[in-house]
Amino acid sequence: MTKSLYQKKRRPSDLLLKIAINGAALLTVIVLAGIILYILINGLPYISWEFLSTSYSESPSGAKGILPMIINTLYIVAITLLIATPIGISSAIYLTQYAKQGRLVRAIRFTTEILSGIPSILFGLFGYTVFCVMFRMGTSILAGCLTMTLCILPTIVRTTEESLLAVPGSYKEGAMALGAGKLRVILGIVLPCAVPGILTAVILAMGRIVGESAALLYTSGMSYNMPKDFFGQIMNSGRTLTLHLYQTAMQATSDDAFHIAFATAAVLLVIVFLLNLLAGLVSKTLKKGEQ
C-alpha cells in the first residue's frame, strides 16, 4: 500500500508540535472553565429574587440588592452602542469605499490601532476632564457613555473595516456593471455581506463596555440610588455592576460582603452570556433574511 505524500513527509517534530498546540488549546479551555465554575459555584447560591429586585444600602442591616446597578449597566451598554455603532460603521465605510488610499488613510488606521491599545484609565482621565469638568456634565451616566464611546470606537472601526475589505470585489463590480450606483451597492451588497463581521465588532465592544471599570470610575460615578425616570437618570451618577463588584470586594470585612461580590460577578457573567446570545440570534435572523 502506497503512502500519501503527507504521510511520507511527516516527522516526529510535527507530532510534537500537534501535541503542543492541542495541549495549549485544552489548557486555555480548562482555565476558562475553571474561572467560570469558581465564580458560579461561589455566587449562584447567594442570588435570589430579592437580591435582583431591590436597591442597595451600605448600612449593615440595609438591603443588598443590585437592581440599580443592573439598570445602570444596561443604560451604559445601550446608549454607548447607539452612539458608537453608527459612527464606527460610517467611518469604516468611508475609509474603505470612499477615501483615497494613501498616507492619510494609513495614518488614520495606524492611529486607530494605537487607540485600541491605550489603557482605559487614560480614557477615564480624558473623559473626566472633558465631559465631566469642561462640559459640566459632572459624574453622570451620559459622561460615562461618551467616554466608553471613545474606548470602543477603535474596535468597531477596525473590525468593520476588515469585514468590508473581505467582501469580494467582483460583487461590487458586477452590481455597478448592471447600473447600480455606488451608495446602492454599498448598502445593498457590501454591508449585508459584512454583517457577521460587524456584529462581531459590536459583540466585542459590548463585552468591553460591560467589563469596564477604570474609565467609568472617573466619569459615571459610584452612586447606587434607584433610577426614578429614564431621561433624568442619564444625567445622574450611577455605578455599574463592575464598579459595584470592585467596591464591595475592596470594602469587604465579612463573609457576607464577599458573597455579595461573587453573586454580583455571577450576575455579570449571565448578563454577558445573554447579550452575546441575543447578538447571535440577531446575526442568524439577518442571515436568513439575506437568503
TrEMBL record:
One of its GO terms (cellular component) is plasma membrane. One of its GO terms (molecular function) is phosphate transmembrane transporter activity. Keywords: Cell membrane, Membrane, Transmembrane, Transmembrane helix, Transport. It holds the Pfam family BPD_transp_1. Its main location: membrane. Belongs to the binding-protein-dependent transport system permease family. CysTW subfamily. InterPro entries: MetI-like, MetI-like_sf, Phosphate_PstA. This is Phosphate transport system permease protein PstA. NCBIfam families: 3a0107s02c. The gene is pstA. The chain crosses the membrane at residues 21-49, 69-95, 107-131, 137-157, 185-210, 260-282. CDD domains: TM_PBP2 (cd06261). It is found in: Cell membrane. Residues 70-279 form the ABC transmembrane type-1 domain. It is a multi-pass membrane protein. PROSITE patterns: ABC_TM1 (PS50928).
